[in-house]
Specification:
The protein is of the alpha/beta class. It folds into three domains: 103 residues, Rossmann fold (3-Layer(aba) Sandwich), CATH 3.40.50.10800; 97 residues, NadA-like (Rossmann fold, 3-Layer(aba) Sandwich); 76 residues, NadA-like (Rossmann fold, 3-Layer(aba) Sandwich), CATH 3.40.50. It has 15 helices and twelve strands. α1 runs parallel beside α14, α3 runs parallel beside α4 and α4 crosses α15. The longest helix is centred in the last third of the chain and has 15 residues. The chain is flat. The N and C termini lie far apart (39 Å). The chain binds 1,3-dihydroxyacetonephosphate (13P) and iron/sulfur cluster. Iron/sulfur cluster (SF4) binds next to α9.
């Protein structure tokens, strides 16, 4: 316990007192990750929320992650430390957009990235995360797939599942979209022996250089396992910080300047402490949205 600061110790005490499970995404600040029961990519977070036996689940992440936990564990109290932490990509698609795409492509099934609202999940056939998208697209019983909202993840999946026709919604993650081909080429020139691990939310002109293209957890595992002494990281900056701390024997570089998701940084240690102390802010969803959205999310978790 001696390495924890006072506020972290309070969080650990409150977690125990209230029988709360704290799940953190890898993009939230490290001092929040350090007091979580599990630090996860989006797929693992959904799996752990679905299996939770605690009275309270606290989601240290953005709003759609809290909604997903509530959909998967509707009888639990699900708390979000920073309810104003949204995901701009999730906000780029509405249920009306999905219904329009369905009417334009009536033979297609709708695959919806988990980075979407519960209302969008409710009008989709199946959800996916970046680590499960390829498998789910391959196994989906159809020849055409409408993919929402991430055009970059969607085109990555389409390139790897050429036997199906994809209709892509034009959304994107503003943080990953900023990483450019010029950033990658400059980083590769500066560190020619480094391997490059990149998130599929980046554009095709960046992803094509990846020695590994994968979710946050897959990027971390790649960095841990590779024999390469230098690794270039193409995703949000907290991953670079986490790897530098975890693997001091390796040289870890972010490509370009640092790429920060401002919403994930709203999940501060103070916000987590107040959330546990006051048991706020509860995630609530309308019954009809909850039951419909749960079907597509359950299909993902059980796939
Ligand atoms: P993963 O952790 O599933 O890779 O998701 C990345 C992300 O952008 C979450 O918002
Ligand atoms: Fe959304 Fe991108 Fe932030 Fe993830 S990193 S929460 S996709 S804006």
């Amino acid at each position: 316990m001696e390495n924890f600061n006072e506020l972290q110790r309070e969080v650990l005490r409150l977690k125990k007192e209230k029988n709360a499970l704290v799940l953190a995404h890898y993009y939230v600040p490290l001092e929040v990750q350090d007091v979580a029961d599990a630090v996860c990519d989006s797929f693992a977070m959904a799996q752990k929320a679905a299996k939770a036996e605690n009275d309270i689940i606290v989601i240290c992440g953005v709003r759609f992650m809290g909604e997903s936990a509530k959909l998967l564990s509707p009888d639990k109290t699900v708390l979000l430390p920073s309810p104003d932490a949204g995901c701009p990509m999730a906000d780029m698609v509405t249920p009306e957009d999905v219904l329009r795409l369905r009417s334009e492509h009536p033979r297609a099934k709708v695959m919806c990235y988990v980075n979407s609202s519960a209302a969008v999940k409710a009008v989709s056939d199946v959800c996916c995360t970046s680590s499960s998208a390829l498998r789910i697209a391959k196994n989906l019983d159809c020849e055409e797939i409408i993919f929402v909202p991430d055009k970059h993840l969607g085109s990555f999946v389409a390139r790897h599942v050429p036997e199906k026709t994809f209709w892509l919604h034009p959304g994107f993650c503003p943080t990953h979209h900023k990483i450019s081909e010029a950033d990658v080429l400059a980083a590769k020139k500066a560190h020619p022996d480094a391997e490059f691990a990149v998130h599929p939310e980046c554009g095709e002109d960046v992803v094509k250089y990846g020695d590994l293209v994968g979710s946050t957890a897959e990027i971390l595992n790649f960095a841990r396992k590779t024999d390469a002494p230098e690794i270039l990281i193409g995703t949000e900056s907290e991953i670079v910080l986490r790897l530098r701390r975890e693997l001091p024997e390796k040289k870890i570089y972010g490509v370009g300047s640092s790429f920060v998701c401002p919403n994930m940084k709203k999940v501060t240690l103070e916000a987590l402490y107040e959330c546990l102390r006051d048991e706020k802010t509860k995630v609530e969803l309308p019954g009809d949205v909850l039951s419909a959205a749960r079907v597509s999310l359950d299909r993902m978790v059980n796939s």
